[in-house]
Write a structure and sequence with these properties.
3 helices, Tetrahydropterin Synthase, Chain A, binds ligand LPXRUNBV, alpha+beta, elongated, five-stranded mixed β-sheet, 23% helix, binds zinc ion
């Protein structure tokens, strides 16, 4: 099995309004997000690729136009702005376009990563 990953960066604000009011993340704040997409394949194509990294340029465009310097509560809806929900969102966006997609990871801070990796179908 071959696995490749590519990273994308954006800055955005969010507010986890469903948390207790004394939780710091219930306040409006922002992060420099990192999104990492993982693709995997048993065999390589004729170029020796799982998939050309440059095919992911469409994801970069999507992130730049839809997420960068935006308020995520407006982009995704109030309940969907945790790192876990973002990871699932980016996984689904990529899986619809790149069948080799196996996981998506999102970092909000230098210490945290959330991953969405569906259980493989038998
Ligand atoms: N499981 C999750 N927990 C938290 C999320 C999340 O998306 N998933 N998000 C937040 C906040 O939005 C933000 O990421 C703050 O995280 P935190 O680790 O508390 O960041 P700090 O820099 O304040 O942490 P320190 O421990 O002070 O370095 C919260 N939780
Ligand atoms: Zn946050």
């Amino acid at each position: 099995m071959f696995r490749v990953t590519k990273e994308f960066h954006f800055s955005a604000s969010h507010q986890l309004g469903h948390l207790a009011p004394d939780h710091p993340c219930a306040r409006l704040h922002g992060h420099n997000y990192i999104v990492e997409i993982e693709l995997a394949a048993e065999d390589l194509d004729e170029r020796g690729f799982v998939r050309d990294y440059r095919d992911l340029d469409a994801l970069k465009t999507y992130i730049d136009t839809t997420f960068d310097h935006r308020h995520l509560n407006e982009v995704l809806g109030d309940r969907r702005v945790t790192a876990e929900q973002l990871a699932r969102h980016f996984y689904e966006w990529c899986a619809a376009r790149y069948p080799e997609t196996t996981a998506a990871r999102v970092s909000e801070t230098p210490k945290t990563w959330a991953e969405y990796r569906p259980t493989p179908r038998p």
